[in-house]
Automatic annotation (TrEMBL):
Source organism of this protein record: Pseudovibrio axinellae
Annotated ranges, domain GtrA/DPMS transmembrane: 263-379
Topology term for the membrane: Multi-pass membrane protein
EC number of the protein: 2.4.1.54
Keywords: Glycosyltransferase, Membrane, Transferase, Transmembrane, Transmembrane helix
GO cellular component terms listed in the entry, alphabetical order: membrane
Residues that span the membrane, as ranges: 260-281, 287-307, 328-348, 354-373
Major localization class: membrane
Compartment(s): Membrane
Superkingdom as given in the UniProt entry: Bacteria
Protein name: Undecaprenyl-phosphate mannosyltransferase
InterPro entries xrefs: DPM1-like (IPR039528), Glyco_trans_2-like (IPR001173), GtrA_DPMS_TM (IPR007267), Nucleotide-diphossugar_trans (IPR029044)
GO biological process: glycolipid biosynthetic process; polysaccharide biosynthetic process
Length: 382
């Protein structure tokens, strides 16, 4: 790395147009493999925000392309730039929350670091918030003047429309673009809501507005979604599951965590896998029922483990030898889960012989046990 002497430092001290002193506005840039984009974004912010006391906090999940180091190098030249490098964690919402919590400005904004968000909107957003008439300002592709441009593929555009409709119908969130990841809000409002936000998933703005339960005064401003220049999108089809999880969790008023919901959805697929495996083992291989049931149970447990590792715990995904150890602990935990399931079901059935009630209570008991214990052991943090 190039070292910067104190003389060079004082030279970059306070160029014309740069406002010194405490920042009024913090821009949080979540990054994963954006080493080419970060220097460009900082330059664009400098131009767009002339006359504003701003700072930028890059929250990088230890990108293999060295985004953290690239940012640290810029920060050596420009004190308005800061870096939070997170190790062993992944996730867009969590990164945004940490970045905003690291700010002490009056206003915080979140913007993609890949140049898809139009930074020239920031001064207008700031103006709207300074007027004290609004708590949050959202950049929307769907109000008049806004456009998804060519930045979204048609299948993504379709998915995005569906997600918008769901948010409107189920969360009663009146936003023209609830999927937008570009917004600015008062930091005091954010801090109030922060304990209720889910760090999983990527719908941080929707989460903030839904958690505000209608109390936030929202201003929408149009913008055109630009095409990505360098690097690639990190949001794959699995994020749709995250989104559905957030939706259901909010419908249940946060009483059920997004993770537990995903875990349960995976459990549901496990039942289907189990039945298909059982049918094949009986019909095609002609195994005797007991043995077929045992093998089908292992097939379903393995499939659940695989899906949970890819989906529910994608931010703590196990790989290599740890993956094997995880699978074995998962087998053991689920075996105890079956005991808990049958035990509870029998207990209830003897005092109240209603088959479906006892059966469902047993299954719920098993699911909760599996979730709590595998959360603590198989996918334990850190
Ligand atoms: N720290 C961190 N950790 N940053 C991440 C992660 C992560 O796990 N995943 C993505 N990012 C960063 C990217 O580096 C980028 O700066 C920003 O988050 C957006 O990620 P993209 O991968 O470019 O997302 P996209 O373009 O597919 O989706 C954007 O548009 C959607 C609307 O269609 C995002 O703005 C979404 O929030 C938005 O819903
Ligand atoms: Mn993008």
């Amino acid at each position: 790395m190039v070292s910067i002497t104190s003389i060079e430092r004082s030279e970059v001290g306070s160029p014309a147009g740069r406002v010194t002193g405490p920042a009024e506005l913090t821009i949080v840039l979540p990054t994963y493999n954006e080493c080419k984009n970060v220097p460009i974004v900082v330059e664009l912010l400098d131009k767009a925000l002339a006359g504003v006391a701003w700072e930028v906090i890059v929250v990088d999940d230890n990108s293999p392309d060295g985004t953290s180091q690239v940012t640290a190098d810029i920060a050596q030249m420009d004190p308005r730039v800061r870096i939070i490098q997170r190790i062993g964690r992944r996730g867009l919402s969590g990164a945004c929350i940490e970045g905003m919590l690291a700010s002490s400005s009056n206003y915080v904004a979140v913007m993609d670091a890949d140049l898809q968000h139009d930074e020239s909107l920031l001064p207008k957003m700031l103006e709207a918030l300074r007027s004290q008439d609004y708590d949050i300002c959202v950049a929307s592709r769907h109000v008049e003047g806004g456009d998804v441009g060519t930045g979204l593929s048609s299948i993504r555009a379709w998915g995005s429309n569906l997600a918008n409709t769901l948010a409107r119908d189920f969360l009663k969130v009146e936003l023209s673009d609830p999927m937008s990841g570009f917004f600015m809000l008062r930091r005091d409002r954010f801090v109030e809501l922060a304990p209720r936000l889910s760090s999983q998933g990527f719908k941080i703005m929707l989460d903030i507005v839904a958690s505000g339960k209608g109390a936030l005064r929202v201003k929408e401003l149009p913008f055109v979604f630009r095409e990505r220049q360098h690097g690639e999108s990190k949001l794959d089809t699995l994020v749709t599951m995250d989104y559905l999880g957030l939706l259901v969790s909010k419908i249940f008023n946060d009483t059920i965590s997004v993770r537990f919901l995903m875990y349960s959805m995976v459990g549901g697929t496990g039942v289907v896998v189990h039945l298909i495996a059982l049918k094949i083992l009986l019909a095609t291989f002609g195994l005797q029922f007991g043995l077929a049931q045992l093998i089908a149970t292992f097939v379903a447990m393995t499939s659940n483990f695989f899906l949970n590792n890819r989906l529910t715990y994608r931010d703590r995904r196990l790989r290599g030898l740890v993956w094997v150890r995880g699978l074995l602990t998962f087998y053991v935990i689920c075996s105890f889960g079956i005991l808990a399931n049958v035990g509870v079901a029998e207990l209830i059935y003897t005092s109240k012989p209603i088959w479906w009630f006892a059966g469902a209570a047993g299954a719920l008991m098993g699911a909760v046990w599996n979730y709590v214990v595998s959360n603590a052991l198989t996918w334990r943090k850190g």
